Amino acid sequence: MQNTSINFKRQVTIKLADVKLQGALSRLQTRFVEGRAAVIGEINDLQETRTAAAAIRDRVLNDLEYWLLHFEQQAIARGAIVHWAETGADVNRIVAEIAARHGVRTAAKSKSMVSEECGLNDALELAGVEVMETDLGEYILQLAHEAPSHIVAPVVHKNMEEIADLFAEKHQLPRKTDIAELCREAREVLRPAFLNADMGISGGNFLLAETGSVLIVTNEGNGRLVTTLPRVHVAITGIEKVVPTLEDVTTLLRLLPRSATGQSITNYVSVLTGNKDSADHDGPEHFHIILLDNGRSSLLGSEMQEMLRCIRCGACMNHCPVYQNIGGHAYGWVYPGPMGSILTPLLGGLENAPDLPNASTLCGACAVVCPVKIPLPDLLRKLREKQMERGMKSRQETFMLKAWAWLALHPAIYAIATKIGVRLMRILGGKEKLLHHLPGARGWTDGRDFPAPAGMTFRELYKRGVHK
Amino acid sequence: MHVGLFVTCLVDTMRPRIGFATIKLLEAAGCEVIVPEQQTCCGQPGYNSGDRKSAEAMALKFLAEFEAFDYVVLPSGSCAGMIRVHYPDLFKDDPALLARITALGQRTYELTDFLVNIAKLKKVPGTFQGTLTYHDSCSGLRELDVYKQPRALLAKMPNVALHEMVESTTCCGFGGTFSVKYGELSTRMADNKCQHIAAAHAGAIVGGDLGCLLNIEGRLRRNGDHTTRVLHIAEVLSDSDLEAP
Amino acid sequence: MNARDKILSKIRNSQARTAAGSVAGTVAQTEMRDSYLALHPRGPLPPPLDNLVAGFKERAIKLSSDVMEASDSKDVPILLARYLSERKLPVSGVCWPSLAGLPWSTAGLDIQSRPAKNQDLVGVTGAFCAIAETGTLMMLSGPETPATTSLLPETHVAVLDPRRIVATMEDAWNLMRKEYKQPPRAVNFISGPSRTADIEQTVTLGAHGPYRVLLILAPL
Questions:
Q1: Do both C128 and C32 map to the same domain?
Q2: Chain B environment of A364 (Cβ under 8 Å)
Q3: Lower CB count within 10 Å: N or C terminus of chain C?
């Protein structure tokens, strides 16, 4: 997917003014925030479980080569073919080759954020393979030619009326008026796609090293259908998704659905190992697993490694007050919200997403809910440090920060400067004691007044003994 | 108890009476309060913007000025959080300094946390009458576990009716330089907070961090609300709200 | 160097950065990893349930499965017939071979023992075991236990022996390890009817998989 994060600020203006989007985003609070709160208490000791989950992810990340090779060995022993891809373009090439090798004309796809990273669908279309998204949200996006705006709820930004219009137009069927009818229509339109597809494409929530399996969590049944009916199954995911044992993945599964959608468990958890043997009635004859790097390996051993713990639950963006106000598209790439603000610069270049690490108050709401305890605000700050080191900050900002720091380290001059400053501001504030304009701070005063200071500093008043 | 007061740069420049209110409360709790003269800023604005160097320098200045005290108290969760949670990060490569900074950080408290858990203030001097609602500033809440403490103190005031607002723990949008750099976004977040405040039907919005309060007040007034009072918890607890700023 | 070598070499180089501090640099790695795999330790667990069957039923119902109970497996077809007629659903479908011997036709049902095709509207399966913690069925694919029977039809009926209800997914994995040498091609955990909330975050039952799941608890 093309990275347009450079347009973040402009997009913020647009999204804040988008009334329909704002209405849609308000649903996040009920469904996801309250949803998570309602079920997270089912976990006996949440903090202990989060600590265990973080430890499971760290065990792998600290020893990734071993666990990836163990996974590969087990998977191959069960008849899967394992491919390694350095970039998204490599993934696309590999899938196209697999399709060509097996005479694939149509593919049914269940949700994969990694495939969005790669821009897989477009590449396959160019290679002559018709790709049908089957996850309802992704299918809607495919019809609308839009990108997902959330990693778990891809069409959170659309309302029912828009979707009903879209279906009526694209399916050439009478316009439906309620959600159940729309779902039924999608089921009927897509069922043939499952039955006739030559190839099923899925992501992989986890890769199980112990058994060489790909694990996917779904609710709709499309994940099961695309990995059961077509004769070829291709699973694509990132190298960091490997988990050592069945018990480890079970610990993670206690946290993932609860953190993501407020479900105790997703409707389906599918653990797929190898291809069908001669006696099986269903299952793919050919099971291909593609492991994508795309910059992940460069995070290992760095101060950003913890970001690779991410299990793509979406809790961080659900609880982020910035995301809650602008939605996912403003972030400009596949991954939005706090995790996207870190991954996008890391995988796509800091110079292409300069706003993302800065468009945060570091409030920490994300870190509280992250099931694997990623220190998201700290990582955002580290990216800001990188920007500072590389001279990527604006001259104005760098000057202001240096000036403030210099003053703060020179108390006598600080005292004089602040005494002058507050008197000036007090005068500007007038009778109302409010400043409607602050030079150099339009970002504040365009939308807010600035309360006038008292007019004298605490330090000078204290020195005078005012309090005695 | 020998307490060093760090008023914070915002209180020093914008609302000195919060500093005096803090002194009053600490003395009511039986503390001897010293105000080191050369104090300026904890370094958070630079730190959060990615400037570790100046944050380090300010941390060293803080260490020199405050190390001698039994406790250091601040009328701000974000500055206290900077000192206790983030100063150690700046010195992780210098074990000797790290030990001193960490130890000092452990003795550094946000005001309400100190009054409730250390000084164990029994009686609150303030006589505030009326309804108020409380905004939980992010750093105090999530870095220092400040939530129950201000409410415990307000509960000691018989004529205070606390109307909890919906989403009291949601960020108000201040975030230091964020409030200027991402002004539209910050304003929207402030506006959301103002709507929750209005829905709480309280005569005053109270909080523990002046940055948040300036942000909230700025939006309230621009929205035409000139009646909801915006007060720091120290002012409410000590009747300093009755004095001239 | 192919992609695999390049990626592994990048990983190795990155890991070398933390060789000093990381787990990898300190202990005999092979032993640690082998013992970790062999022991496959469990993480934090929920508190034990007093009554597995009751706990399972409660959770299954919460997740929108329907639950019926029979004291004898030969009563299963009667219960199913009642369920289907109450909802005006078709009385024909397919079942797993292990259930072919139940008296379906006596109850007025036309249930054929074969894998499901797209046109089949009722699919009757057993289950490898069930998990009380979340009201979940564990299904292991195989020649006698095709995965499509619980997936293609609009109504999925699972006949479950209550003695095969375990407390947690960890217990379910252990049972699988005991009775199978290795996982089959597909292990599917099923927790109710298929569903989606993609439209306005409103949960709708019946997406691409079954619209309804009926669990009949009966000794087998």
A1: no
A2: 138-139, 142-143
A3: N
Per-position DSSP letters for A171-183, written without gaps between them: H-SPPP-SHHHHH
Closest residue in C to A193 (Cα) is C208
Considering only alpha carbons, which residue of chain A is nearest residue C39? A245
* C52 close to C129: Cβ distance less than 8 angstroms: no
Range of the domain at C102: 52-217
**Do C172 and C71 lie in a common domain?**
yes
Cα–Cα distance for residue pair A107/A110, rounded to 1 Å: 10
Q: How far is CA A171 from the centre of its chain?
A: 30
The correct answer on CATH 3.30.700.20 for the domain covering A41-297 is no
**All chains having 3 or more CB pairs closer than 8 angstroms to chain A:** B, C
Contact B20 A461 (CB under 8 A): yes
Spatial contact of A230 and A110, defined as CB atoms under 8 Å apart: no
Could you tell me the sign of the dihedral formed by the alpha carbons of A12, A14, A17, A21, in that order? negative
Of the candidates C51, C50, C62, the one whose C-alpha atom is nearest the C-alpha of residue C135 is C62
Residues C33 and C63 in one domain: no
Instruction: Please check whether residues C27 and C129 belong to one and the same domain.
Output: no
> Quick one: pLDDT at residue C20?
45
Partner-chain contact A48 C24, CB within 8 Å:
no
Q: Does position C24 have pLDDT exceeding 50, yes or no?
A: no
Q: How confident is the model at residue C29 (pLDDT cuts 50, 70, 90)?
A: confident
Kindly report, residue by residue over A161-171, the tens digit of the pLDDT.
999 999 999 99
Is the CB of A358 inside 8 Å of chain B's CB atoms? yes
Q: Which pLDDT value is given to residue B245?
A: 57
Dihedral sign of CA atoms A363, A366, A370, A373 in order: negative
* pLDDT given for residue C18 in this prediction: 57
Give the chain A residue nearest B39 (alpha carbons): A411
pLDDT of residue C179: 96
User: Dihedral sign, CA of C64, A205, C209, A143?
Assistant: positive
Q: Where are the domains of chain A?
A: 41-297, 395-463
Looking at the fold, whether C98 and C124 belong to one and the same domain comes out as yes
Do B and C touch (≥3 CB pairs < 8 Å)?
no
Domains of chain B in sequence order: 2-117 (3.40.50), 130-238 (3.40.50)
Sort B218 into a burial class: Cβ within 10 Å, 0-12 / 13-18 / 19+: buried
Counting as low any pLDDT under 50, the low residues of chain B are: none
State the number of CA atoms in the 13 A half-sphere of B88 facing the CB. Answer: 12
**DSSP strand pairing (A130-133 vs A106-109):** parallel
Contact (Cβ atoms closer than 8 angstroms) between residue A277 and residue A241: no
A227 near A108, Cβ under 8 Å? no
Q: The tokens of B158 are what?
A: 């018989």
Please compute the mean of the pLDDT values over residues C163-185 and round it to a whole number. 96
**At which residue do the structure tokens 């983030």 appear?**
B86
Radius of gyration of chain A (CA): 26
Where residue C22 falls among pLDDT bands split at 50, 70, 90?
A: very low
